[in-house]
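User: Can you help me understand a structure? I only have the sequence.
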Amino acid sequence: MPLRDLLLGLVIVALWALNIIVIKLGVTELPPLLLTTLRFALVAALLVPFHPVAPHQLPFLALLSVTFGALHFALLFIGLNHAEAGTGALLVQMGTPFATLLAVLFLGERLDARRVAGLILSFGGVAVLSGGPSLPSPLPMALLLTSALGWAVSQLLIKRGPHLAPLALAGWVALFAVPQVGLGSWWFEHDQLAALADAGWRGWGAVFYTAVMSSIVAYGLWYGLLRRHPVNRLAPLSLLVPVGAVLLGVVLLGETLDPHKLGGGALVIAGVALIVVRLGRRASTPTTDSPGE
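Assistant: Let's start by predicting it. Here is the structure, written out as tokens:
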């Protein structure tokens, strides 16, 4: 890989790792579902007018908005309201093992020894993380793992669904997700207008960053790299995202690096690496970014 593309890949990793930190900061000023709604609304406003889709593709996009929009992103934002950013970044990586298991169950794919080892390591890492002090109750873990499951289900839907340009998919999924997450905010949260009036740079900065920098800029740059390089060459870069999020959580948020996070995180990342990295073989292009990005 040319040095220019390698540096560009590292910039994308930094943008996605910082996204977890920004969400964590954002939910301190805006309720998580309200923040998610605003994020989707901005993505839709910036992308939908420039990326039209065919009418027959709309039912598929509406379905995907439930799993990828409402389930994955909404629960990610809620989960990060209750868990450390670094722990959350590690847990949502379980989307890859979940997607592997779902492909075996519903698409008839087979597991080789390498991927079985990856699954064992990943789930072992979650077990280690669950005993750490960064998860004070089972609720954050359940929310973040369900978010990862939503990402995994979305991968199967995209794999079987119509071909769509990545930014068109992101924009229309966001558009369909706005009323779903907005209704959830109206039903489960309160004082939204007061929160909007009182929000400062953390809240509004999170809306801008998660929509523009993470979902549009980093997403667009990543697919530019995918057009020039095989997925297998880029997969190791994506594994740096949770590592970066953990380190940024320590530096920017004062989070701790306890043995549970170090050991469990290493197992999760090693397991995901065994699943996604195929040495000496070209992989097909994935359809979305990594979980939580």
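Now, to help you interpret it: The chain has one domain: 3-276. Residues 201-228 form the longest helix (28 residues). Let me know which part you'd like to focus on.
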